[in-house]
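Lab notebook, bench 4. Still working through the backlog of constructs that have no structural model yet. Next entry is a single chain of 63 residues. Request: give me the C-alpha cells for it.
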Amino acid sequence: MPLNPHLAELESQHRALEDQISEALAHPSTDDSKIVELKRRKLQVKDEIVRLQHDTSVSVSIH
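Model written out:
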C-alpha cells in the first residue's frame, strides 16, 4: 500500500475506471462518447498518479 493515502485513492479510482471501460466495451449498445469520457478520466487519474509518484520520489531523494 502506498504511503500517500491520496495516491492509494487515485489508484483505486484508476482500477474502477478500467472496470467501467471494460464493462462498457462488453455492451455494443454503449454510447461511444461515454467510453471516450471514461478513458479521458482514466488518463487524467493516471497522470495525477504519475505526478504524485514523481513528487514523492523527488522529496524522498532530497531528504
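Notes after review: The chain has a mean pLDDT of 90. Residues 5-62 form one domain. Flag for follow-up if needed.
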